[in-house]
Amino acid sequence: MKKTVNLTINGRSVTAEVEPRTHLADFLRDDQRLTGTHLGCEHGVCGACTVIMDGEPVRSCINFAVACDGTDVRTIEDFDDDELMAHLRQAFTEEHGLQCGYCTPGMLIMARDIIARLPDADESRIRLELSGNLCRCTGYVGIVRAIRRVLAERKEVASV
Amino acid sequence: MKAAKFDYERPADLDGALRLLGGGGDVYAKVLAGGQSLGPMLNLRLAQPGLLVDVTRIPELTRVEDDGEALVLGACVTHAMIEDGKVPDVTGGALPSVAGAIAYRGVRNRGTIGGSVAHADPAADWPTALSALGAEAVVRGPSGSRTVPVSEFIVGVFETVMGEDEILEAIRIPKLSADARWGYYKVCRKPGEFADAIGAVLVDAEHSVHRLVIGATNAAPVTIADAAEVLGGNGVPGASFDLDAARRLVDGADTNLDDMERHIHAVALKRAVEQVAK
Amino acid sequence: MSTKGIGARLTRKEDGRYMRGRGNFVGDMAMSGLKEVAFLRSPVAHAKIEGIEIPDAIRARVFHNADMKGVRPMRPAASLPGFKQSDFPALAADKVRYVGEMIAACVADTRAEAEDLVEQIIVDFDELPVLANIVDAQKPGATLIHEEWGDNVFVVTSRDDDIDAVAKTAPVKVTRTYDMARQTMNPMEGAGCLAYWDERMGQLVLYSSTQAPHLIRTGLAEHLELEQRQVRVIAPDVGGGFGYKCIMQPEELAVAWLAIKLGHPVRWVQDRREHLVACANSRQHHYQVTAYADEKGRILATDVEVTVDVGAYSVWPFTAVLEASMAGGNLAGPYGLEVCRYKTFSVATNKPPFIPYRGVARAGVCFATELTVDAIAREIGREPHEVRFENLVTPDMMPYTNILNKHLDSGDYPECLRRAVDGIGLEAVRERQAKGEEDGRMVGVGIGMFTEQTAHGTSVFSGFGIPLIPGFEQAKCRVTPDGGLEIYIGVHSHGQGMETTMAQVANEILGIDPDLITVVHGDTGSSPYSTGSYASRAAVMAGGAISRTCKVLAERLGIIGAHLLQCGHHEVEVRDGKVVGPRGEVSIADVAKIWYLNPDQLPDDADPGGLEATGGYKPKVDTGSFTYSAHAAVVAVDVEIGAVELLDYVVVEDCGTMINPLVVEGQTFGGTAQGIGTGLYEESPYDDNGQPLASTFMDYIMPGATEVPDIRMVHMETPSPYTDHGIKGAGETAAIAPAAAIANAVNDALRGLGAEINETPMSPRRVLAALAGARKAAE
Ligand SMILES: Cc1cc2nc3c(=O)[nH]c(=O)nc-3n(C[C@H](O)[C@H](O)[C@H](O)COP(=O)(O)OP(=O)(O)OC[C@H]3O[C@@H](n4cnc5c(N)ncnc54)[C@H](O)[C@@H]3O)c2cc1C
Ligand code: FES
Ligand code: FES
Predict the structure, then answer these.
(1) Cα separations (Å) of C652 from A96, B154, C416, C631, C715?
(2) Where are the domains positioned within chain A?
């Protein structure tokens, strides 16, 4: 019953045989060995599994790999050389935006999307946009401060 | 928490999809749109269909059209497209504001308006909002196409008028006049949560529309199509609409709610009306 | 002095791998021949198992209790008088006692296929009456969860002060009932473990998402009847613990057994539904409190009954006694209470067994006592903080042993409260309240205070008489040939940042840059024994052990260094990564090179133990060092729909010397967020049939970024007189007070309406019910 999918993962084109019931997160983690994408609930609520699909954040636990045929998927492992992600990582570590690190890949991907999509977001907007990503460790304080900081620093650079 | 086995097809056109849905013999086929409601149910094994028919690449279901009187959104238009204004807005901001408050961005990027209506979760946003906007569901089945008002399309909790061999093709949203007023108030425990209560109101005097909807009940959304009187006629709408008035409407509706829930629904309705009264 | 040692706000060494998605959690591992496990769990709360039907085609891949011969059920003892032991087998034997209890293990190539197997098993249940709450469980003639007990009470503890004299004369008396809802801890990574038998070492190797690898090793060996040396437990990256992972899980036992039985690696990764259904295991406390006070609010006596719904079994090793007996022992809080009578009941019900959750028992105690303080304040018409000042232990009383035998070591509790009152801007809130809100919401302000006995040691746990009592903590430290340092500790870090903070402690002594220090934790194969990371003990205990051990190394480095510097070894000092003498200095790297690679240049008096040492540590007293704190919250209550919004939140905390303020703040923010969950959102309700009603995150509401405000933190820093460097624990503390502070704020807001809420979570429904109750009472 396996089906063939063709998709791009972190810039590589991948062709694979998948069981239709395999969700994208399991496909990435088990078949592609990209284990940076985490599973926190597998029912769409926690955001730990967030990846970028065709430029937008999506939840890989409730999208089946077979249905992602033809898409372009980026996981946390693909952002090693990304300038904006580097900036965010610096801010995350300085503001102590992570503890156990389990929610972190999903958080960073979501945070990066917020910064790119909403350069004028204020604190309450950041919190709203982040409300679909659960963290049990940090109380979100460091995460929100880190995002605010990156937004502010980028604005400063832009205005110079 | 992994889904039970199912088969998967992605037909290129509506006829192909209808064939797959109708012709399976004893295979239980189900439509897959954004998967944002079906995905969790499959992972939890609450749904165990034999075949998923992915309709997201069917042109009729992704189309966006202006037919003069209404905006026609293919069923697979996503919440995020509406939120971002990637489809025209004919409702003075109602559509994008409702879309933007559904779930979370990651869900909105995949979840579809049609999936939401077809799923008929009473706590979801589109069933109530579209009922209030007077939208229609365009349904395609083996014997052709029919159009049903969204307010009649949903008949109960997770229940619609659609047969298992039918597909929701599009949603038709009538254009509002320039001075139409829209009120929408959702009570939920936190952003992105399904609603505990929704009140929606549309006053479009030019089109003689005074519509209230009580949503997120334990039944289908309750549409009060003829609310001109309770809203105070064509003057300043809602000026005399207080909590008691709202409560009377809620008490009189078929909501299957307990006393405290009816109170909260009355508050939601009152607050929605306050938005149009402003 | 070092800028990277104790007290430095150092960013964390561990962050990099997590931020790049290169952490290594149990679910991330790959191994050839690995198979996945899914468990068949009981769908009913209380039943006899009459039979298990397994299709022949899958029989070889399904295992149940009868297959697990020789594996002992968990049956932890406790020495408290009257404590009743329970048999808790990894897979249910003849009876199931809660929904989610494991009945069978299914093994397949993938988790999905293992779940397919689960669906094919049919269990024949003979259902028994269900005890879904403490009231039913305590009724005479109630069904027995453990037949041989005669009733459903694990243990009763009490203290019997004579309060009659006070009761007769006290001018003020308040009586209240409090309830804290059952909760699920929900680390973002659930539990999980992977086991295989290592033929070369003759060892069972278990990778587990645990806080306490050594403890699991001891537990596995005992229950599988292996020798301890035949078991190695490794905790890799662990996605949060919060107490849930500080016990031996029945799944760990089952998976370990499967690996031995099957001869290939097996893994189980808990999913969220399993966690929510089978692990609703904390916080459900019920209190009946009567407090007697004088006109100024000074509490003269309290009379308390605590009942904890501890679920069906005792967990290994902490047992069902921990929660209620700690509740009893903490009733005095930060106050100089003189008379206290209490009785605690640990009641068995058909729910998952209790596991110690961050702030064990004290979140409930703090809720009950702090709401009582506010009730007294309302009764006598004073500001709640003024009533607290009447009662707090003052600095001149320190160290102070309270009536419940808690040895409060140091600190300034009134100052802590003052800073909280100032920090939250009490006066401004009172003015705002007088003005009223434009949107009609009611604003309120509330405070919650507590002390936390951190790193409580041997005597406290030996008082419970449980199977495993913490003692000394050891660290092994090794200077590498190039002058770096490896630190091996038995505690495990799963968010607390110990890869950084423990390096800071070593840096404080040796001056080696933390970047050149590796902290190896969580592997029984390489680290000294430790009972694990819990009870806010790791920083105090492992920190102390590292400090002591590094001092031993400093001494040995000094001897070699002095020889190289041609001076006496009492003339040298180790600092900044160097051995510094009167006329010159030599780097630790150079000394290390001599020890390892050029021993020909060593002095005769070089310590043969070399540049590697294991040292141990225990604070001067083992009654713990007391961290204390005041939380203050401002809320706005929408009285029409019962919604509570947190407008502001301040934490003042004194956890002694901070190794790293950044990490302390992180622990505080995270703990506070969990406490906000306790106060406002989180609840694992059960129906009368013992069915859990919150089995997904759709039903179990976790606080998100919109529910937790930008918490403001104020530090106080009173070093403990009893610990090395004055460190006190900080891990659990912040989860204790939020429910109390928020409830006091809500009650402050609702005061004018005559409504009061005394239960968690303060959901819209409960707030509206309180308001309706007040309206009724007024009529
Ligand atoms: C965490 C989370 C939070 C959410 N919060 C909200 C919220 O606050 N408000 C809200 O409104 N929604 C919420 N949702 C649901 C979300 O909006 C879904 O996108 C939507 O309900 C379903 O759309 P879908 O395209 O994903 O449909 P799918 O999940 O693919 O399908 C849903 C159902 O509809 C059927 N179906 C779908 N499309 C068609 C069609 N064209 N014709 C016939 N049948 C069809 C499917 O067979 C299935 O039974 C939430 C979801 C998640 C995961
Ligand atoms: S794992 Fe996908 S949203 Fe939680
Ligand atoms: S850092 Fe642990 S869940 Fe976010």
Answers:
(1) 19, 53, 6, 6, 6
(2) 3-78, 81-159
Rounded distance between C-alpha atoms, residue C151 and residue C738, angstroms: 35
- Residue A67 has its nearest CB partner, among B2, B7, B35, at B35
Q: What is the DSSP string of C647-663?
A: EEEEEEEE-BS-S-HHH
The ligand that comes nearest to the alpha carbon of residue A133 is 2
| Most A CBs within 10 Å, among C12, C14, C18, to test the A interface | C18
Answer yes or no: is pLDDT of A111 > 80: yes
Show which of C595, C617, C639 is a domain's final residue: C617
C-alpha A43/C-alpha A59 separation (Å) is: 9
Ligand 1 site, CB within 6 A:
A 44-45; B 30-38, 40, 55, 75, 102-103, 107, 111-112, 114-116, 118-119, 124-126, 167-168, 192, 194
Residue A95, classed as helix, strand or coil, is coil
Q: Residues 459 to 478 of C: which have CB under 8 A from any B CB?
A: none
Q: Which domain, by its residues, includes C597?
A: 472-617
B74 & B143 share domain = yes
Asked if residue B197 and residue B151 are part of one domain, the reply reads: no
The CATH code of the domain that includes B103 is 3.30.465.10
Closest of B3, A105, A41 to residue C700, by C-alpha: A41
Report the sign of the C-alpha dihedral through residues C190, C191, C196, C202, in that order.
positive
The residue segments making up the domain with residue B19 are 7-54
Closest chain B residue to C119, measured at CA: B4
CATH number at residue C273: 3.30.365.10
Closest CA to C603 of C575, C573, C574, C561: C561
User: In A, which residues are within 8 Å of C20 by CB distance?
Assistant: 36, 76-77, 79-80, 89
Residue whose CA is at the smallest distance from ligand 3 atom 3: A135
**Distance from C-alpha of A61 to C-alpha of A57, rounded to nearest angstrom:** 12
Q: What is the pTM of this model?
A: 0.98
Pick B105's closest partner by Cβ from A3, A69, A129.
Answer: A129
CB C12 within 8 A of CB C658: no
A134 lines ligand 3 (CB under 6 A): no
User: Is ipTM > 0.95 here?
Assistant: yes
- Establish how many alpha carbons lie within 13 A of residue B60's alpha carbon, considering only the half-sphere containing its beta carbon: 19
Count Cβ atoms within 10 A of the Cβ of residue C694 and give its class: 0-12 exposed, 13-18 middle, 19 or more buried.
buried
**C691 and C547 share a domain?**
no
Out of 3.30.70.100, 1.10.150.120, 1.10.1060.10, 1.20.210.10, which CATH number does the structure's domain A81-159 have? 1.10.150.120
pLDDT, tens digit, 9 for 90 and up, residues B180-233: 999 999 999 999 999 999 999 999 999 999 999 999 999 999 999 999 988 886
Cβ atoms of C44 and C125 within 8 Å: the answer is: yes
Tell me whether residues C116 and B3 touch, CB distance under 8 A. Answer: no
Contact B167, B14 (CB under 8 A): yes
Q: Is A45 in the pocket of ligand 2 (CB under 6 A)?
A: yes
Domain for residue C481, yes or no?
yes
Asked if residue B107 and residue B46 are part of one domain, the reply reads: no
CA A38 to ligand 2 centroid distance, Å:
8
Whole-number Å distance, alpha carbon C96 to ligand 2 midpoint, is 31
Asked whether residue B154 is assigned to any structural domain, the reply reads: yes
Return d(Cα B122, Cα B198) in angstroms, integer.
10
Domain A3-78 maps to which CATH number in 3.10.20.30, 1.10.10.10, 3.60.21.10, 3.40.50.150?
A: 3.10.20.30
CA dist C292 → C295, C305, C334, C365 (Å): 10, 15, 17, 17
- DSSP states along C16-61: HHHHTT---BGGG---TT-EEEEEEE-SSSSEEEEEEE--GGGGGG
Task: Judge whether residue C1 has pLDDT over 60.
Answer: no
The pLDDT tens digits for A44-78 are 999 999 999 999 999 999 999 999 999 999 999 99
